User: Fold these one by one.
Assistant:
Number 1:
Amino acid sequence: MSTSHLRADGGRLCARLEALGEVGAVLGPNGERGCARLALTDADREGRDLVVGWMHDLGLAVGIDAIGNVVGVRAGTDPDAAPVMIGSHIDTVRTGGRFDGNLGVLGGLEVIETLEQHGVRTRHPVAVAFFTDEEGARFQPDMLGSLVYVGGMGLEDALDVRAADDGARLGEELQRIGYAGSLPCPAAGAPHAYFELHIEQGPVLEDEGVTIGAVTGVQGISWTELTITGQSAHAGTTPMRLRHDPGYVAAAITVGVRAIAQRMGGTQVATVGRCELEPNLVNVVPGAVTMTVDLRNTDESLLLQAEAEFQQLCAGLAGEEGVTIARRSLARFQPVEFDTAMVDLVEATARRLGHTTKRMPSGAGHDAQMLARVCPTAMVFVPSVNGLSHNIAEHTHPADITAGADVLLQVVLAAAVAV
Amino acid sequence: MSTSHLRADGGRLCARLEALGEVGAVLGPNGERGCARLALTDADREGRDLVVGWMHDLGLAVGIDAIGNVVGVRAGTDPDAAPVMIGSHIDTVRTGGRFDGNLGVLGGLEVIETLEQHGVRTRHPVAVAFFTDEEGARFQPDMLGSLVYVGGMGLEDALDVRAADDGARLGEELQRIGYAGSLPCPAAGAPHAYFELHIEQGPVLEDEGVTIGAVTGVQGISWTELTITGQSAHAGTTPMRLRHDPGYVAAAITVGVRAIAQRMGGTQVATVGRCELEPNLVNVVPGAVTMTVDLRNTDESLLLQAEAEFQQLCAGLAGEEGVTIARRSLARFQPVEFDTAMVDLVEATARRLGHTTKRMPSGAGHDAQMLARVCPTAMVFVPSVNGLSHNIAEHTHPADITAGADVLLQVVLAAAVAV
């Protein structure tokens, strides 16, 4: 049967987003409606229960694995075919929004409901998954559930992770909220394909007036913490030539990594997000500074080049100013490239549906980058208003949500093969 | 009588510094022996009682004024002559040393005791004063007692000042510790001259191997707080060209004011001592930064030039990066120049006693800058080990203390006129 005319019901999808957003709702100072559903808290359980209830309503066979990942499966016509999986997460950061993650999971349910509504059968099963602790806001590392799902982290190690806030053990929190499931993890078999619909969490689509991003991969990430030690001194009595000022060095590094990113261009970004002076007083040259540098690139060799230039910058400044710089790697991930045919499919489908498109990397991490280790994977991005995310003011216009769900529906149909 | 051979007893002076340092003593991690005698606390009362006891032991007529300044007077032979005053303070910062302030007051007592010991009479009375709340660590502004003493701040306003820590009213704390005196403040008459012996609180004398600093004046101070507001954003998903990063602007200002100070040279210094990013997370471009800029110069016109260049720097960066910068002045004092004849006297006396000397400005504020408004004033600096001050590791070698006390004794004799 021809299914190319099928469209998602954006209103229905938005209603589910609203309903899930009420669980752990937080209100901003200007009436913004955000969300606080940290992984494996009571709010997370309540959110999970709501989504699992919807899965049951849609007739899905719901399975829970040993790390709490939940997969609802709609059977296909071929009993031997691996499922086409749609997934994301429903945990949020502490002051998060209602779209990050949730859109991918509820977009999947919308695909299922559209298929049901129109009586469309597919050769491959279609599965909707939400993965445990994608945000990493309570248990680190982030993308933990999908990482364990693809065998990238041992189950026992993951269950032993302690919460950053209250020290709770992940395995016990899973038990406590009733989501320590019986399915094996890592999963027994890989999906046939994996799709994830997600808000961009950045300003590029909005800035360029584009509706659909066909995500080509995920940037590699290099996080470094620097502890710079100099000599605390009186701001009035210490001549410039006798200073060993770690605050100046931190500033020069901040300016320097900006210059590295601008000189390299392309997808290279560089950010100093954290910087703390000690003792942090108006009239005291600081004695020590702790800062972080976040470098990202879609190309591993370029990311290595940025790291090398950053190292040279630090060494030069330390020598010039007479300070010491201790380095600690906080995170290092290589870039992930999505399957080209899958990216082409997203792009072509979006164009066929009349949307403007842009092939673009993701600057943020997603469960999709884990699934890309085991099956052909692609992501569909829709614009974030003002590029905001991890923010209670996070918003995506309903028309863009509908556009994204339509593209998701059509690429799933293409991969799962309507019969 | 000839008094040019008279010398202070450095051991006696050091013993008094030790004894006063035991009041409010704090011990550092490496056995450093510091001091915490915040103004008008119980520890301050105990320190005051000790010093007033020594004043009585030396036969001084002790008077306390309405803001708690204490002056012990040794009579001169001329009933109409105004006193030569030696002064400083005995309050300390929260983690202070045993020399800052205390040396000037106890150096004054050492001068008195030497005169007594040798039966030296002077035409002018010799007074030793300690002023209330020089540090400003508990009650702001700093140098409060000497400021009121010279009529620079109204007594009632000063008594109404509230403590930064517990909100206590200065006037009530004065009453509580028994130091709300009956003498008028501002003082009825000005001293004939004022001398203050003080540790340098900076590294210059030690760095240049000089024993005695003849202080030419006090640098003007300009403190500005900047609040820079940009757009918080995801460190991975926000291209460099779309950023409005107040952290980058703060860093560029920090680098820029360093460059201004180095280009101007002379006594110009520039310090960013405080800098706070919001939200201060590794993977978030900050949305706002608060920072301070401390500019100092001995020349008012040059300080104005530094301020103007700093303003231009801020305006340029705000425009380039698309951020707003709100400015707030935290403090602004014009430079103070000491009486040239008095500075010459200190320098010539130190040389006569065989010490290396350097004419130098003070980068820190002192009670002397207030007294300079009403009488010829000079300061004698001795080296601070490693330039440290406002630090429990503050130290000055006994030989340097003795040298400073000798110079103080001889300049007081010259001004008070031995008879």
Number 2:
Amino acid sequence: MIENFYSVIPAGGGGTRLWPLSRKSSPKFLYDLTGESRSLLQSTVDRLSVISKHENILVITGQSHLDSVIRQLPELNSDSFIDEVEPRDSMAAIGLAAAILQLRHGDVVFGSFAADHVIEDKDGEFESAVKKAQDAANDGYIATIGIKPNSPSTAFGYIEEGKQLVGGTYLIKKFVEKPTEQLAKKYVESGRFLWNAGIFISKTSVMLEALKIQKPKLYDGIMKIANAWDTPRRLTVQNAEWAALEKVAIDYAIAEPVSKKGMMAVVPGNFEWTDVGDWDAIATLIQKSDTANSCASGQNVTLGNSEFIHTINSHDNIIFDSQEKLIVLLGVDDLAVIDSGDAILVTKRQIAQKVKDIIPHLEDEDLDKFI
Amino acid sequence: MIENFYSVIPAGGGGTRLWPLSRKSSPKFLYDLTGESRSLLQSTVDRLSVISKHENILVITGQSHLDSVIRQLPELNSDSFIDEVEPRDSMAAIGLAAAILQLRHGDVVFGSFAADHVIEDKDGEFESAVKKAQDAANDGYIATIGIKPNSPSTAFGYIEEGKQLVGGTYLIKKFVEKPTEQLAKKYVESGRFLWNAGIFISKTSVMLEALKIQKPKLYDGIMKIANAWDTPRRLTVQNAEWAALEKVAIDYAIAEPVSKKGMMAVVPGNFEWTDVGDWDAIATLIQKSDTANSCASGQNVTLGNSEFIHTINSHDNIIFDSQEKLIVLLGVDDLAVIDSGDAILVTKRQIAQKVKDIIPHLEDEDLDKFI
């Protein structure tokens, strides 16, 4: 447990690369995608419960997902849930959480952690990195934890380390977008680049001050809502102000401009992390952890109602069965076969990133109910 | 129309290579597998309606399929349906039909045609072959129609032609089992071998006499049931005699021994024929007919609720959607993706013959309800 540390989980929507399971109406964080009988959201709360008391955890989610989220997290009380009228991207969510925390508890250090990432941390490295980031936050920085890359991935943004502040904490020189493969290799070889895991740790006052400077209108709207939150006026103000909140990611609203002012710090995190971005990433994640335990190879990854999945002469497939429907694979390798109940996807793992291209196709065909 | 010609359709079970669609409870002849909005059984009746009046057509099927069969064939009256208490293979079915026809109409010529084969006959070649076989039947032969092979298939049995009887009709020298590929090539090159399409055409008296000689006990059982058929005793006798009927194919019970006596004739049939044996055969059949019309290539074959099937960068797949469930294929080729409602199969077209191996797997796993 880290003393006086508050955890915020923005559980927005998204995840079109995990279609047909992940939908507008049921985003990926609600699903068990690691075969451990806990949804990504539940695993996130489990992980944060090690560093924050339950009453110090906030979950921000869309009103359409609120019921599912509350049902999945019986350990949290109703004060822990912040509902969004409509999606307004990460800055509004994190800003509102910071403001509510500050009004409830005064100026405290909080961290924001995605609801749909997987972290494998056997040696307490995650907690230790958060503690270092807390120190940097207490020194006035907005801190992040950057993941030491184990491959030149082109699926993530990178963070370039600047000068060392104290042992294991660096100034951020700059944030860089998802690179080309060539560039990614250079980054990894340099040893100075980390994956951006979208973690932000700061004092509430520092976050809100940065927001006030960078996005004054958004700050005003958020403060109006936050001031009304724990009062009978919550609903009225929420409904009156929400539509006007700017839709912008914290990366663009705060991280990039503040890093240019030399006010952002990064702690390199030495643990396994993945954003569970697509079906291939999930399969690789599970195969890796299974191999560590059982030395199996060429195995298939089965999720959902696994007992209804049967594979014959088939290897390295990922199969998700959300119903009690028999799924049989015969003599096929490296496929993703995903049955969400009302839709089935069959594709190759190696092109799993392209699953997001199905969404515009469905829009063109007036199949919005499947999006 | 061929005068005084009776048609018999044994519609038994089977078709394990078309799992998961074809089941014990709903065999393949009940499905539209050619995309023409007629089941294989309906197409068979359509084809035979050209050569036999509706009242001269008999369909023999299991009691468990009788309702479905009657519903699919409203053009036939109740006398046309012969129900089997339990499957007893083709000899019992064809023998009983022959006996019932003889008792109802005297000694007539009839032909037996499988319920689940597809014949494409644009030039009346099928009718013309049946007429020639009828002539041979009137001369006392048990005749068959052998298909001129267009490839050295190892999926069918072959018939070797003997000496010519009259123009276009030959004695059968012998029946041969499914050959190796090498042997199949020799057969096709010789020009004297035909595919065995399981068609038998003879006088009822000749068929029953052959049965009496080859399988006297089976003959006795069948005659008892046939004599009771159009009487109030039908049900009692049927139930009393059925279990003891020998389970044997007409090929072994009659065709092979009778051909050795020089009493079987074959008419080479010059039309497109397929036994719709597996998913690849169905895809090839439909692709061939579509290409003839539209010159399309690399297209996917979609069956069932085709409007719910979407393919993106995917080619030469066969997809069956039996529900209103979205099926999306992204970047995959040459697959069979079959959704029967309670089960989904994903396999490669080139190993479609191996789908039958799934059945023993399901038996081992106590999943009999999916067989």
